[in-house]
Every structure is written in structure tokens, then in C-alpha cells.
Amino acid sequence: xxxxxxxxxxxxxxxxxxxxxxxxxxxxxxxxxxxxxxxxxxxxxxxxxxxxxxxxxxxxxxxxxxxxxxxxxxxxxxxxxxxxxxxxxxxxxxxxxxxxxxxxxxxxxxxxxxxxxxxxxxxxxxxxxxxxxxxxxxxxxxxxxxxxxxxxxxxxxxxxxxxxxxxxxxxxxxxxxxxxxxxxxxxxxxxxxxxxxxxxxxxxxxxxxxxxxxxxxxxxxxxxxxxxxxxxxxxxxxxxxxxxxx
Amino acid sequence: xxxxxxxxxxxxxxxxxxxxxxxxxxxxxxxxxxxxxxxxxxxxxxxxxxxxxxxxxxxxxxxxxxxxxxxxxxxxxxxxxxxxxxxxxxxxxxxxxxxxxxxxxxxxxxxxxxxxxxxxxxxxxxxxxxxxxxxxxxxxxxxxxxxxxxxxxxxxxxxxxxxxxxxxxxxxxxxxxxxxxxxxxxxxxxxxxxxxxxxxxxxxxxxxxxxxxxxxxxxxxxxxx
Lengths: 246, 225
Ligand code: SF4
Ligand code: FES
Prior knowledge:
heterodimer; A: alpha+beta; Ubiquitin-like (UB roll); Fumarate Reductase Iron-sulfur Protein, Chain B, domain 2; five-stranded mixed β-sheet; 11% strand; elongated; B: mainly alpha; 9 helices; 0% strand; globular; binds iron/sulfur cluster; binds FE2/S2 (inorganic) cluster
């Protein structure tokens, strides 16, 4: 199929940036969205132009690197997928596709479609871990009984790949789904209890410091999250923070 | 705890708590208004009680005024902060794909409700305060002293079709605001509403039936007097 692409081009963090139109032809519907971008970039390189910079790594939906706001939605129109898993069969011949970087003040654009998501790393560093004494006497995690229900919910929360689609989709650029998932995955397990109060306090404080917006429960994040992280995790984080403060 | 209410999530709790109070207030307001349809006498009695009982006047009324102001001021601050959290807007954004119109436009439904409240204050609250606390007439009686004045005042207001029209428009916005706000408040205080269908339905029912009740009462008096 033949497509018109409207892509955000921005030379560097200080550049003002603008939307630029491109045409790609003979795109197979079996291609992934990133493969289509590869075709465009090859075209650009061959004609001596600067290729479009975009993030990617695993290309199988596990690393969370690929981003892109496609036709007004994070990771495009499909549900439960990252951009690398988005197939071109979701589009029609002759379509015009708008491609923008994830937008949030806390995610500044580095170049073209690449944004700096290290705010997420800093939130993780503030408390998204457990401290374990690795002296050799560490208790085997499998010997600690955990209910199936809690284990399942913790696992669901832990599937968050830190892609930032929740922030990008949220009208408030709020990071609460991400932070909620990271708080929840420990809050549900016995290993997470000891540092629970400090964890939620510090992670929320860091989140606020990074300049993300405030959640107004629109639920857009949950719909656009490639891993189906549920709003329940935000409710749990809210409960955890209240618990930590009384 | 003071740090808690400065955090983004602490503010969510505060916003939700003021919302709970306001939603409870709406229910009791509706209940008393409903009396006016069935019995002028009962409505008069209830109004006089609410208008003169000290706990209502000096405890609940200030709490209500504070709650309303807090909810509006925080709503505006929230909106401004959240707009600032995305400095560069998307060229193309498909909000309808992942969220309801109501949830994305709380500020506009809120503004419409604010406009209505101004009208409502001028209509009912200011004359009430004037009669009771400036002129010092706590009797609740009509000028001729023949019976209570509340029912008369209420029905008199709903004669004007323009006022009734404004009420209807305002209550449509109130319904839209509540259709998101009801469950949003529960989600904010950490209630697991996400998976509870029944909660969603209760929220929908409240958001539609309560405003509808106010509208029907206004229409009833408009066409019956
Ligand atoms: S919660 Fe979902 S959308 Fe947000 S970072 Fe994690 S995987 Fe991505
Ligand atoms: S490139 Fe790893 S998730 Fe898309």
C-alpha cells in the first residue's frame, strides 16, 4: 500500500520542530510499523537526507523502547500492543498517518520521535526495588508462601515495561499508571512490606518532582497500555500512600 | 500528614472528599425539593427546619460553602497544572479512542455548574440570608404572616421559562460532571471501582437520576402555577 506520513521532525532538544510530509510506497500489510519506518529511512538515506530518529530495541513488545504517537494514540490504533507489534494491516492504502513523539513536559524530545524517559528511571531509583542481604544466607523466595491471587496481581503489575504510553495518552500527562504498577508489584508481595511506606512516599514524591500532571481518572492510560495494566494499580497506590501517612 | 495533602495523590483524596460531601448534599437537597411536589406543608416545615436549625446553619452551611469553594479552586489549579504538564500539544489527538467526553471535560462542565451556582445564589441564597440575618426575620412567615413563605418563593421562581431553561441546561452539565465524577471520587480514595460493574451502574444511576429529579421538580412547578 501507498501512504502519506506526517512526521514530527526536530533536529535536537532546542530546535522548534515541525511536521513534515513523506510518501512511502509498496508497504506490505504484514510489515510492522517500525519496518515501515525502516523503509522510509532507507529511502531518506538513499536520497542523502537525515533519517527519522525513533527509539526501538527488542522489536517484540518487551523492552518498552519504541514509542510514537500514531494518529492520535500512543502505539497507534491497535490495543495491547507496542509500536513494534503494530501491523500495517491496521491501515488502508492511501491513508495519511500522523506520527508524533510522546508528549509530556517530563519527557523532553531529544530528536525527532525520540524522547527522554529517564524521569521513569529516577522514579524507580527512588524506591522501585527491595533491599536484600546477599550474604549467602538469603532466604529462597520460593519458600515464602504467597497466595495465588496476590502472586497473579503482582505479576500483572510487574508486566509494565515502562514504555510511557500511559503518560503520552493521559490528557494530564500523568505517570500514575506506571508508578501505580511499580508500587503495586511490591505492595502485593511479602518481600515488599518492609520498605513499603518509604517506597510509596519516595516514588510519589519523585513523580511529582518530575513535572508529570495529576491523574483525573479518565482511564485513557489503561486503554492504551500495551500490557493492560489496570487502574486498580492506581487505586492501590493511593491506598498505600494513605497507609504510609497514618 | 501535611506532606500528604501537598502531594498529587493527597490532593486527589481532598478533591474526592469534597466531592463526597457535595454529592451527599445534593441528595438531601433533592429529597427536600421533592417534598414540594407532594406537600407544600411538608416542604415548608423541612425548609424552615433546615433554615433555622443551628447545626445546619452554623456547621453544615459553612462546611458546604468551604467544600464548594475548595472543589472549584482546586479544580482550576488542577486544570492549570495539568495543562502545563504537556507544554507542546499533539497535532493529532484521538481522545475519544480511550476516554469518555465527560472525563476529558470536567473543567467545562464544572464551569457551567459554577455559572449556575452564581444564579442560584442570587435567586435563593442571598434573599434568604438577607431576610434572616440582615433584616433579622427568622420567623419564616409570609409578609402577611399567613403561613410559611418557602413554598411560595419556590413556585414563584419557576414561573419564568427562562429560569427553568437555564436550570435544565445547568443540570445537564451537572449530570455530565457526575457521570465521570461519581466513580472518579471513589477511585481517588482507593476504592476498587475499576472492576466493579455494580459501582459503575450506581454511579450512572446517581448521575442521571439526581439531576433529572431537580429538572422534573422545576418543570412540575412551572406547569402547575
Ligand atoms: S503502565 Fe503500561 S503504558 Fe505505562 S509504562 Fe507501564 S506498560 Fe507502558
Ligand atoms: S522495540 Fe521493544 S517494545 Fe517495541
